[in-house]
């Protein structure tokens, strides 16, 4: 069994070839980092164009690196949601074209399910049921995975996801966004004092497993604005004191600036992750009432590649006598491997669609699901939260 996975739900164009036994034969990711850095976010139309430009090349490279041609494939898996429909379309069109030409079954994949299930590729001991915390650019989910395709949503974000908060904070701090804001912020935070600014932890009074990052974003913004005012005032003061011709000691001002930005980064990160820790603690309690046998918490999605996040969650998991399963960073951020692997899991259960017609028109109404919840909401959660 050999499956090609294609992923274009957001800003990365990714493809990979994975074998039924979990062997990764190839993985290719083309990111739109330059566009992200230039515009500070994902603009759907531009992202669609960028995907269209590279999709053929990315898929071909994945096949070449695996030393295969499409005739050797057993099936094609492709993300059909959630995500930007213009972007999803590019991947789905490519997948169907290929599947149609080579008479291959096709498997439509849920992007967040793929983020969770890739953990089963790297940790073979990981059996259902397990818990997952999925933290990325657009999602903050706590789920209980009963079985393949059977998920209970214990918590979700009521506004922004943590990745969005990392990205905005990084942008406001003027960090290099060419790799997305998260890694740059993680790096800067290492230099800062995490206790220096007392941001408040979101949703303290809500005894549920939901998340909120919009308020923390506002707190950070205010802190940055007040520091900026301070720096501007200091410069002005120095200019006045030293009289116009004197050289302003820029180096010390900017190192001071870096220091205070690092303090903001570290303080933000501490509270952003404390919020995750608190929610995980409660979710484990809830999940154990439904499935006392759970042994693992999977942490995946782009933000799970952060070392501080991993260390803090490892602590929570150990305290609760569970095991943490966190995929390597390259499999936490968007990739084709997770799509191919999730395809393999479904394929093995007989869940796939027949090959599309070889002459399918490009305007065919694809089954895209830009908004697609993962599993049922945990109804009792609402009463427990009271
Ligand atoms: P979603 O999965 O919700 O559809 P996405 O696919 O765009 O969103 P991912 O690729 O899964 O997102 O994750 C990208 C997010 O992860 C970005 O917000 C990015 O800043 C964040 N991220 C990546 N690396 C790190 C890191 N080291 N620390 C913090 N955040 C990080
Ligand atoms: Fe993602």
Automatic annotation (TrEMBL):
Cofactor note: Binds 1 divalent metal cation per subunit.
GO MF annotations, alphabetized: metal ion binding; tRNA N(6)-L-threonylcarbamoyladenine synthase activity
Catalytic activity annotation: L-threonylcarbamoyladenylate + adenosine(37) in tRNA = N(6)-L-threonylcarbamoyladenosine(37) in tRNA + AMP + H(+)
Domain spans labelled Gcp-like: 23-341
Keyword field: Acyltransferase, Metal-binding, Mitochondrion, Transferase, Transit peptide, tRNA processing
UniProt subcellular location: Mitochondrion
Cofactors, names only: a divalent metal cation
An example Gene Ontology CC term for this record: mitochondrion
Coiled coil: none
Any single biological process term in GO: tRNA threonylcarbamoyladenosine modification
Quaternary data: Homodimer.
Family statement: Belongs to the KAE1 / TsaD family.
Described function: Required for the formation of a threonylcarbamoyl group on adenosine at position 37 (t(6)A37) in mitochondrial tRNAs that read codons beginning with adenine. Probably involved in the transfer of the threonylcarbamoyl moiety of threonylcarbamoyl-AMP (TC-AMP) to the N6 group of A37. Involved in mitochondrial genome maintenance.
Descriptive protein name: Glycoprotease 1
Taxonomic source organism: Populus tomentosa
Name of the coding gene: GCP1
Residues of the full protein shown: 72 to 457 of 479
């Amino acid at each position: 069994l050999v499956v090609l996975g294609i992923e274009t739900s957001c800003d990365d164009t990714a493809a990979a070839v994975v074998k039924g036994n979990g062997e990764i034969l190839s993985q290719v990711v083309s990111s739109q980092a330059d566009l992200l850095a230039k515009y500070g976010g994902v603009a759907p139309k531009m992202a669609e164009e960028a995907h269209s430009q590279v999709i053929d090349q990315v898929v071909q490279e994945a096949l070449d690196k695996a030393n295969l041609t499409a005739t050797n494939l057993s099936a094609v898996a492709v993300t059909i949601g959630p995500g930007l429909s213009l972007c999803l379309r590019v991947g789905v069109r490519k997948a169907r074209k290929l599947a149609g030409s080579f008479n291959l079954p096709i498997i439509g994949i849920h992007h967040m399910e793929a983020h969770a299930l890739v953990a089963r590729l790297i940790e073979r001991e990981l059996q259902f049921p397990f818990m997952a915390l999925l933290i990325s650019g657009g999602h903050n989910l706590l789920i209980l995975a009963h079985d393949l395709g059977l998920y209970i949503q214990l918590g979700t974000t009521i506004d922004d996801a943590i990745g969005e908060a990392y990205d905005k904070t990084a942008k406001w701090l003027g960090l290099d966004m060419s790799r997305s804001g998260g890694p740059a912020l993680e790096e800067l935070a290492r230099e800062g004092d995490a206790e220096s600014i007392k941001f408040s932890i979101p949703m303290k009074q809500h005894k549920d497993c939901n998340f909120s990052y919009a308020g923390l974003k506002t707190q950070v913004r205010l802190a940055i604005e007040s520091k900026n005012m301070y720096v501007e005032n200091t410069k002005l003061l120095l200019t006045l004191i030293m009289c116009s011709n004197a050289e302003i000691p820029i180096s010390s001002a900017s190192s001071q600036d870096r220091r205070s930005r690092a303090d903001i980064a570290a303080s933000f990160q501490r509270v952003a992750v404390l919020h995750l820790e608190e929610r995980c603690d409660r979710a484990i309690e809830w999940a154990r009432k439904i499935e006392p046998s759970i042994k693992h918490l999977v942490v995946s999605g782009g933000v799970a590649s952060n070392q501080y996040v991993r260390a803090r969650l490892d602590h929570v998991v150990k305290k609760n006598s569970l095991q943490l399963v966190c995929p390597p960073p390259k499999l936490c951020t968007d990739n084709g491997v997770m799509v191919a692997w999730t395809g393999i899991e479904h394929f093995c259960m007989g869940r796939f669609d027949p090959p599309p017609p070889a002459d399918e028109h490009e305007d065919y109404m694809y089954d895209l699901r830009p908004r697609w919840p993962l599993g049922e909401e945990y109804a009792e959660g609402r009463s427990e939260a009271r």
